Amino acid sequence: MENRLTLRNEILKNMERNSRIDLKELSVLLGLEEATVANEVAEMEKEKVICGYHTLIDWDKTGTEKVTALIEVRVTPQRNQGFDRIAERVYNYPEVHAVYLISGGYDLLVTLEGKTLKEVSRFVSEKLAPIDSVISTATYFILKKYKDFGTIMVPKTESERMVVTP
Fold first, then answer.
1. Domains in the chain, please, with CATH?
2. Which residue, 74, 71, 94, is CA-closest to 83?
3. Contact predicate 106/138, CB 8 Å
4. Are the C-beta atoms of 86 and 77 separated by less than 8 Å?
5. Of 36, 45, 41, 52, nearest to 14 (Cα)?
């Protein structure tokens, strides 16, 4: 590898596609010693470049009832702290999976999961909306996932066209 940044980027690209990749396999792919790759991964974990490892689950196939919602939140930023304090207050709720500062008509995008639509709606109305800086919210429920984190979630369908032979 020409430099450390390139090495790190190659490691990260491979790990992003498959977080379970074996370090030995990764070192072979990159043409490096396993110890070199292992040391870089450990260093990136220590520096919080690699923030965690996650498993993507298709909950629909488990029989577990889950509702995923995307909530746009418009807020008034706080003096000297912008959106950070509000975002921190929101991301500390255990049902919240992610909080993003976004551009556009809203300021924050919050993703969360609950057991029912009512449970998610109650979170928005009882916990999120009453926060002083929150001006408005818009809630969208995920009805079906086609692709998530780069993984296609639906099986490929066979062509519905009839085969015509002469």
1. 4-46 (1.10.10), 59-144 (3.30.70.920)
2. 74
3. yes
4. yes
5. 41
In the predicted model, is pLDDT for residue 1 greater than 50?
A: no
Q: Three-class SS string for the chain? A: CCCHHHHHHHHHHHHHHCCCCCHHHHHHHHCCCHHHHHHHHHHHHHCCCCCCCCCCCCHHHCCCCCEEEEEEEEECCECCCECHHHHHHHHCCCCEEEEEECCCCCCEEEEEEECCHHHHHHHHHHHHCCCCCEEEEEEEECCCCCEECCEECCCCCCCCCCCCCC
Closest CA to 95 of 74, 110, 76, 77: 110
pLDDT digits (tens, 9 = 90+) for 55-107: 888 888 898 889 999 999 999 988 887 899 999 999 999 999 999 999 999 99
Residue 45 is encoded by which pair of tokens?
A: 């974990």
Average pLDDT over residues 4-21: 90
Amino acid letter, residue 156: K
* CA distances, 109 to each of 12, 96, 101, 102 (Å): 25, 11, 7, 7
